[in-house]
């Protein structure tokens, strides 16, 4: 019998940190899938939503534990954008987060609509990379293959010019809505979610030209 490993609060904190401290639930879910210990429950997004609310005083289901997360627009708005509370980013609080391995309740089944949306997103990114002729970062021109050799060939990340959290329901994302960036620039773009890749490119050029 396959034993599913609970998604810990530490997994969610690490995922949100990697996303710049604030992200949509769908983005958090994808980031958790990359770092959490498999096998994960099929209802991963529902589990993460539950854990966010359990550890947020913004939610009715807050259990009075560590108040780690905040709902950016309020839980009632159902916008799905969550952020780390700033004081919880301090090192003194991080160790305790990663010790939290209490069992999760696998609430709710994964809806087909959600599954199809996730697969479509992956295909879009795959199609975007497949049509690239230049795998250098659009911002800083970093080339993974030039730096790492064969293992870096064809590696690049796809950044949504319009943040996923801001895309209106029913609006399709096109290949032209994505831009190729390296991992470092991607992290910088998501650090505050307000700077565009062109602005970051300009900022980088100004920074490197300063004496």
From TrEMBL:
<feature type="domain" description="HNH">
    <location>
        <begin position="137"/>
        <end position="191"/>
    </location>
</feature>
<dbReference type="InterPro" id="IPR002711">
    <property type="entry name" value="HNH"/>
</dbReference>
<dbReference type="Pfam" id="PF01844">
    <property type="entry name" value="HNH"/>
</dbReference>
<dbReference type="InterPro" id="IPR003615">
    <property type="entry name" value="HNH_nuc"/>
</dbReference>
<protein>
    <recommendedName>
        <fullName>HNH domain-containing protein</fullName>
    </recommendedName>
</protein>
């Amino acid at each position: 019998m396959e034993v599913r490993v609970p998604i810990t609060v530490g997994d969610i904190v690490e995922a949100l940190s990697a996303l710049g401290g604030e992200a949509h639930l769908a983005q958090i879910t994808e980031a958790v899938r990359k770092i959490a210990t498999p096998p994960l429950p099929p209802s991963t997004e529902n589990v993460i939503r539950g854990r966010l609310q359990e550890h947020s005083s913004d939610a009715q289901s807050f259990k009075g534990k560590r108040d780690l997360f905040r709902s950016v627009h309020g839980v009632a708005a159902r916008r799905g954008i969550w952020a780390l509370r700033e004081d919880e980013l301090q090192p003194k609080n991080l160790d305790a987060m990663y010790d939290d391995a209490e069992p999760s309740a696998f609430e709710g089944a994964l809806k087909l609509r959600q599954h199809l949306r996730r697969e479509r997103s992956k295909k879009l990114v795959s199609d975007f990379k497949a049509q690239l002729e230049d795998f250098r970062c659009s911002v800083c021109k970093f080339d993974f293959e030039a730096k790492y050799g064969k293992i870096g060939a064809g590696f690049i990340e796809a950044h949504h010019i319009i943040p996923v959290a801001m895309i209106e329901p029913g609006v399709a994302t096109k290949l032209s809505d994505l831009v190729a960036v390296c991992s470092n620039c991607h992290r910088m773009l998501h650090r505050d979610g307000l700077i565009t890749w062109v602005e970051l490119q300009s900022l980088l050029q100004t920074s490197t030209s300063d004496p």
